[in-house]
Amino acid sequence: MNGISKITLSAVIGGTAESLGGGKFANGAVTGAYVMMLNHLGDHGGGGDDKLKQYVNKYFGKRLPTNVSIEWNTWSNDYGQTTSDDIANPNSDLVVYIPESYMEGDPDGLQYDCITHEIQHIRDYASGRAANWYDSYGKEMTEAIMDFLAFRQNQWYSDSYRNSNYNYNKNIKTAWNSLPIGWQNYYKHQ
């Protein structure tokens, strides 16, 4: 796992832990600490693992639900490979490995929901999609697109991996209403 993906993972986990603890960590990918660390690593050639560990430990907690792991993967198909300096290119992706199911109301299930939501945001930032959307649509539309995709991801995992009382349809509909028209038409029948 390279430096950026380690920070990304720590941002997700730290933000999830804070939100579950009653904090107001809205989006692990866009906090000041996260941006500061990425900028620092970019300015200083990525730093070593020890330097990275210091920053991660300073700003983020490290917690994952039982039997869940998150890894940076590269793929030989459309997802591409890492660059020569092992920085993930826009075609690399974060992958969440989860157990087959959680019991209803399991605290790990709640934390997993938070992580899968944030992971989608991380994918959007790390791939460069968020920057492209921002250039094309502006800040508010970009946030709507990202929320829509993240809530859809949550709904898919909830439907596929456990029976949950939480229904993401309301969140999906709210975000969908804010999407650019072309996006609404594309996702209308999906």
Task: Explain the overall architecture.
By secondary structure, the chain is mainly α. It has one domain (3-187). The protein contains eight helices and two strands; from the N terminus they run αααββααααα. It has helices spanning 3-20, 32-43, 49-59, 107-127, 129-137, 139-161, 169-177, 181-187; strands at residues 69-73, 93-97. A two-stranded antiparallel sheet has the order 1-2. Helix 1 runs parallel beside helix 3 (49-59), helix 2 (32-43) packs antiparallel against helix 3 (49-59) and helix 4 (107-127) packs across helix 6 (139-161). The chain is globular. The chain starts with a helix and ends with a helix.
Task: Please outline what is shown here.
The protein is mostly helical and 190 residues long. 58% of the residues lie in helices and 5% in strands.
Helix content: 55-70%
How many domains in all? 1
Provide the residue-averaged pLDDT: 57
**Which strand order do you get reading across the main beta sheet?**
1-2
Number of strands: 2
Distance, first to last CA: 34 Å
Number of helices: 8
**Assembly level:** single chain
- β-strand percent reads 5-15%
Query: Uncertain runs with pLDDT below 50, 5 residues or more?
Result: 1-7, 15-65, 69-94
Major sheet attributes: 2 strands, antiparallel
Shape, please? Answer: globular
The rounded Rg comes to 17 Å
Topology order in helix (H) and strand (E) letters:
HHHEEHHHHH
